[in-house]
Amino acid sequence: MIKLYITRVFALWGVVMITIGCASITHHEQNPIGNDKNIEITIAANTDLSNVLKRLSKEYEAENKKVKVHLVFAASGDLRNRAKSDAPFDALIVASPEYLRDLKIVGKPVALAYGRLAIYGDNPPASLDELEDFRGTLLIANPETSPYGELAEKLLKAKLWYEKIKKRIILANNVRDAKLEVDQGKASLGLISLTQALEGQKNYSLIETPLRITITGVALKTGEGEAFLKWLTQPKQQGVFTQYGLSPAHIAEVHRPKGIVK
Questions:
Q1: What's the distance, CA 188 to chain centroid?
Q2: pLDDT tops 50 at residue 223
Q3: Are 90 and 219 in contact (CB under 8 A)?
Q4: Going by C-beta distance under 8 Å and a sequence separation of 6 or more, which residues neighbour residue 210?
Q5: Cβ proximity of 26 and 192 under 8 Å
Q6: What is the pTM of this model?
Protein backbone atom coordinates (compact mmCIF):
# COMPACT_ATOMS: atom_id res chain seq x y z
CA MET A 1 0.00 0.00 0.00
CA ILE A 2 2.81 2.38 0.90
CA LYS A 3 4.55 1.65 -2.41
CA LEU A 4 1.31 2.25 -4.31
CA TYR A 5 0.75 5.55 -2.46
CA ILE A 6 4.28 6.75 -3.23
CA THR A 7 3.84 5.81 -6.89
CA ARG A 8 0.63 7.84 -7.07
CA VAL A 9 2.28 10.86 -5.41
CA PHE A 10 5.14 10.88 -7.92
CA ALA A 11 2.70 10.46 -10.80
CA LEU A 12 0.64 13.41 -9.56
CA TRP A 13 3.78 15.52 -9.10
CA GLY A 14 4.81 14.73 -12.64
CA VAL A 15 1.48 15.98 -13.99
CA VAL A 16 1.82 19.21 -11.96
CA MET A 17 5.35 19.83 -13.27
CA ILE A 18 4.29 19.21 -16.87
CA THR A 19 1.38 21.66 -16.42
CA ILE A 20 3.67 24.30 -14.93
CA GLY A 21 6.15 23.79 -17.74
CA CYS A 22 3.47 24.22 -20.41
CA ALA A 23 2.15 27.34 -18.68
CA SER A 24 5.66 28.75 -18.55
CA ILE A 25 6.20 28.11 -22.25
CA THR A 26 2.86 29.74 -23.12
CA HIS A 27 3.68 32.82 -21.02
CA HIS A 28 7.10 33.05 -22.61
CA GLU A 29 5.62 32.93 -26.09
CA GLN A 30 2.96 35.52 -25.28
CA ASN A 31 5.38 37.92 -23.59
CA PRO A 32 8.27 38.49 -26.00
CA ILE A 33 9.88 41.03 -23.64
CA GLY A 34 11.04 38.06 -21.64
CA ASN A 35 13.13 36.90 -24.60
CA ASP A 36 16.77 37.79 -25.05
CA LYS A 37 16.03 39.20 -28.50
CA ASN A 38 15.58 42.98 -28.79
CA ILE A 39 12.25 44.26 -30.10
CA GLU A 40 11.78 47.13 -32.55
CA ILE A 41 8.37 48.69 -33.16
CA THR A 42 7.18 51.48 -35.44
CA ILE A 43 4.50 53.86 -34.18
CA ALA A 44 2.90 56.16 -36.76
CA ALA A 45 1.21 59.28 -35.37
CA ASN A 46 -0.25 62.60 -36.47
CA THR A 47 2.31 65.42 -36.55
CA ASP A 48 0.71 67.29 -33.65
CA LEU A 49 2.02 64.61 -31.28
CA SER A 50 5.65 64.88 -32.37
CA ASN A 51 7.16 66.31 -29.17
CA VAL A 52 5.01 64.48 -26.64
CA LEU A 53 5.53 61.08 -28.26
CA LYS A 54 9.27 61.63 -28.62
CA ARG A 55 9.39 62.19 -24.88
CA LEU A 56 7.08 59.29 -24.00
CA SER A 57 8.81 56.82 -26.32
CA LYS A 58 12.12 57.49 -24.55
CA GLU A 59 10.45 56.85 -21.21
CA TYR A 60 8.96 53.62 -22.56
CA GLU A 61 12.38 52.45 -23.77
CA ALA A 62 13.83 53.26 -20.34
CA GLU A 63 11.22 51.07 -18.69
CA ASN A 64 11.52 48.30 -21.30
CA LYS A 65 15.23 47.91 -21.98
CA LYS A 66 14.83 45.48 -24.88
CA VAL A 67 12.39 47.67 -26.83
CA LYS A 68 13.29 50.30 -29.44
CA VAL A 69 10.48 52.62 -30.56
CA HIS A 70 10.64 54.17 -34.04
CA LEU A 71 8.28 57.10 -34.69
CA VAL A 72 6.79 58.21 -38.00
CA PHE A 73 4.85 61.50 -38.20
CA ALA A 74 2.49 62.81 -40.89
CA ALA A 75 -1.06 64.09 -41.27
CA SER A 76 -3.68 61.60 -40.08
CA GLY A 77 -5.08 61.10 -43.58
CA ASP A 78 -1.65 60.45 -45.04
CA LEU A 79 -0.89 57.87 -42.36
CA ARG A 80 -4.24 56.17 -42.94
CA ASN A 81 -3.47 55.83 -46.64
CA ARG A 82 -0.02 54.43 -45.93
CA ALA A 83 -1.45 51.94 -43.44
CA LYS A 84 -3.97 50.78 -46.06
CA SER A 85 -1.02 50.23 -48.40
CA ASP A 86 0.55 47.89 -45.82
CA ALA A 87 3.15 50.27 -44.40
CA PRO A 88 5.11 48.44 -41.65
CA PHE A 89 3.42 50.16 -38.71
CA ASP A 90 2.87 48.29 -35.45
CA ALA A 91 0.41 50.90 -34.21
CA LEU A 92 -1.29 53.97 -35.60
CA ILE A 93 -2.31 57.11 -33.68
CA VAL A 94 -4.53 59.60 -35.50
CA ALA A 95 -6.53 62.70 -34.61
CA SER A 96 -9.91 61.13 -35.38
CA PRO A 97 -11.33 57.59 -35.20
CA GLU A 98 -12.84 58.24 -38.63
CA TYR A 99 -9.37 57.73 -40.11
CA LEU A 100 -9.31 54.13 -38.88
CA ARG A 101 -12.13 52.96 -41.13
CA ASP A 102 -11.35 50.13 -43.56
CA LEU A 103 -8.10 49.27 -41.77
CA LYS A 104 -7.17 45.79 -40.58
CA ILE A 105 -6.72 46.34 -36.87
CA VAL A 106 -5.92 44.29 -33.78
CA GLY A 107 -8.31 44.75 -30.88
CA LYS A 108 -10.36 47.91 -30.45
CA PRO A 109 -9.35 51.55 -31.00
CA VAL A 110 -8.58 53.43 -27.80
CA ALA A 111 -9.02 57.15 -27.10
CA LEU A 112 -5.72 58.50 -25.77
CA ALA A 113 -6.43 62.22 -25.33
CA TYR A 114 -8.51 65.14 -26.59
CA GLY A 115 -7.19 68.13 -28.52
CA ARG A 116 -8.42 71.71 -28.90
CA LEU A 117 -8.03 74.53 -31.41
CA ALA A 118 -6.36 77.89 -30.90
CA ILE A 119 -5.80 81.06 -32.93
CA TYR A 120 -2.05 81.58 -33.20
CA GLY A 121 -0.07 84.68 -34.18
CA ASP A 122 1.51 87.94 -33.00
CA ASN A 123 -1.81 89.51 -32.05
CA PRO A 124 -4.50 86.82 -32.23
CA PRO A 125 -8.13 87.90 -31.73
CA ALA A 126 -9.83 86.71 -28.56
CA SER A 127 -12.45 84.72 -30.50
CA LEU A 128 -13.39 83.50 -33.95
CA ASP A 129 -16.09 86.17 -34.21
CA GLU A 130 -13.41 88.86 -34.32
CA LEU A 131 -12.12 87.37 -37.59
CA GLU A 132 -15.09 88.89 -39.43
CA ASP A 133 -13.11 92.06 -40.14
CA PHE A 134 -9.78 90.26 -40.47
CA ARG A 135 -7.70 91.53 -43.40
CA GLY A 136 -4.64 89.28 -43.26
CA THR A 137 -4.08 85.67 -44.27
CA LEU A 138 -5.21 82.71 -42.19
CA LEU A 139 -3.49 79.31 -42.21
CA ILE A 140 -5.23 76.04 -41.41
CA ALA A 141 -4.16 72.44 -41.96
CA ASN A 142 -5.53 70.69 -45.05
CA PRO A 143 -9.09 69.57 -44.14
CA GLU A 144 -8.77 66.59 -46.49
CA THR A 145 -6.02 64.97 -44.43
CA SER A 146 -6.02 66.71 -41.05
CA PRO A 147 -8.85 66.47 -38.47
CA TYR A 148 -7.63 69.76 -36.97
CA GLY A 149 -7.96 71.39 -40.37
CA GLU A 150 -11.36 69.78 -40.85
CA LEU A 151 -12.58 71.14 -37.51
CA ALA A 152 -11.14 74.60 -38.26
CA GLU A 153 -12.94 74.71 -41.60
CA LYS A 154 -16.18 73.50 -40.00
CA LEU A 155 -16.12 76.26 -37.38
CA LEU A 156 -15.34 78.93 -39.96
CA LYS A 157 -18.05 77.79 -42.38
CA ALA A 158 -20.59 78.04 -39.56
CA LYS A 159 -20.02 81.81 -39.48
CA LEU A 160 -22.27 84.01 -41.63
CA TRP A 161 -19.22 86.03 -42.67
CA TYR A 162 -17.22 83.02 -43.87
CA GLU A 163 -17.37 84.07 -47.54
CA LYS A 164 -15.73 87.39 -46.63
CA ILE A 165 -12.49 85.72 -45.53
CA LYS A 166 -12.61 82.54 -47.60
CA LYS A 167 -10.12 83.84 -50.17
CA ARG A 168 -7.60 84.66 -47.46
CA ILE A 169 -7.43 81.11 -46.08
CA ILE A 170 -4.24 79.19 -46.90
CA LEU A 171 -3.88 75.42 -46.50
CA ALA A 172 -0.81 73.78 -44.96
CA ASN A 173 0.11 70.10 -45.28
CA ASN A 174 -0.54 69.46 -41.60
CA VAL A 175 -1.13 71.31 -38.34
CA ARG A 176 2.58 71.45 -37.45
CA ASP A 177 3.44 72.99 -40.82
CA ALA A 178 0.67 75.54 -40.30
CA LYS A 179 2.33 76.70 -37.09
CA LEU A 180 5.78 76.83 -38.69
CA GLU A 181 4.51 78.89 -41.63
CA VAL A 182 2.98 81.45 -39.27
CA ASP A 183 6.32 81.57 -37.42
CA GLN A 184 8.02 82.25 -40.77
CA GLY A 185 5.65 85.11 -41.58
CA LYS A 186 3.87 83.34 -44.46
CA ALA A 187 0.50 84.12 -42.86
CA SER A 188 -0.81 86.56 -40.26
CA LEU A 189 -2.63 83.96 -38.18
CA GLY A 190 -3.04 80.22 -37.87
CA LEU A 191 -6.04 78.27 -36.66
CA ILE A 192 -4.10 75.35 -35.22
CA SER A 193 -4.01 72.89 -32.33
CA LEU A 194 -3.42 74.13 -28.80
CA THR A 195 -0.49 71.70 -28.66
CA GLN A 196 1.29 73.47 -31.51
CA ALA A 197 0.39 76.91 -30.18
CA LEU A 198 2.01 76.09 -26.84
CA GLU A 199 5.19 74.99 -28.62
CA GLY A 200 5.44 78.20 -30.64
CA GLN A 201 6.97 81.56 -29.75
CA LYS A 202 3.92 83.65 -30.63
CA ASN A 203 0.68 84.28 -28.77
CA TYR A 204 -2.57 82.33 -28.90
CA SER A 205 -6.23 82.48 -27.97
CA LEU A 206 -8.10 79.30 -27.12
CA ILE A 207 -11.20 78.64 -29.25
CA GLU A 208 -14.31 78.28 -27.10
CA THR A 209 -16.21 75.32 -28.51
CA PRO A 210 -17.44 72.01 -27.07
CA LEU A 211 -16.02 70.23 -30.11
CA ARG A 212 -12.82 68.30 -29.48
CA ILE A 213 -10.31 66.31 -31.48
CA THR A 214 -10.19 62.68 -30.31
CA ILE A 215 -6.64 61.36 -30.42
CA THR A 216 -7.15 57.66 -31.12
CA GLY A 217 -4.69 54.77 -31.20
CA VAL A 218 -5.02 51.30 -32.65
CA ALA A 219 -2.68 48.33 -33.02
CA LEU A 220 -2.11 47.07 -36.54
CA LYS A 221 -0.10 44.04 -35.42
CA THR A 222 -0.22 41.77 -32.40
CA GLY A 223 2.65 42.40 -29.99
CA GLU A 224 4.55 45.29 -28.49
CA GLY A 225 2.55 47.96 -30.32
CA GLU A 226 -0.50 46.90 -28.29
CA ALA A 227 1.50 47.14 -25.07
CA PHE A 228 2.73 50.63 -25.97
CA LEU A 229 -0.81 51.94 -26.56
CA LYS A 230 -2.02 50.44 -23.28
CA TRP A 231 0.95 52.05 -21.50
CA LEU A 232 -0.09 55.46 -22.88
CA THR A 233 -3.42 55.19 -21.05
CA GLN A 234 -1.78 54.95 -17.61
CA PRO A 235 -2.09 57.97 -15.23
CA LYS A 236 1.58 58.98 -15.42
CA GLN A 237 1.59 59.09 -19.21
CA GLN A 238 -1.81 60.79 -19.31
CA GLY A 239 -0.33 63.50 -17.10
CA VAL A 240 2.40 64.07 -19.68
CA PHE A 241 -0.23 64.60 -22.38
CA THR A 242 -1.71 67.48 -20.36
CA GLN A 243 1.65 69.26 -20.38
CA TYR A 244 1.31 69.49 -24.16
CA GLY A 245 -2.18 71.01 -24.18
CA LEU A 246 -4.14 67.76 -24.47
CA SER A 247 -6.98 66.67 -22.19
CA PRO A 248 -6.60 63.21 -20.60
CA ALA A 249 -8.92 60.45 -21.74
CA HIS A 250 -8.34 57.87 -19.02
CA ILE A 251 -8.09 59.63 -15.68
CA ALA A 252 -10.73 61.69 -13.95
CA GLU A 253 -8.63 64.79 -13.39
CA VAL A 254 -5.13 65.98 -14.15
CA HIS A 255 -4.03 69.44 -13.11
CA ARG A 256 -3.01 71.47 -16.14
CA PRO A 257 0.02 73.75 -16.17
CA LYS A 258 -0.89 77.39 -15.54
CA GLY A 259 -1.65 79.38 -18.65
CA ILE A 260 -3.21 76.57 -20.71
CA VAL A 261 -6.81 77.01 -19.68
CA LYS A 262 -8.21 80.44 -20.41
A1: 28
A2: yes
A3: yes
A4: none
A5: no
A6: 0.79
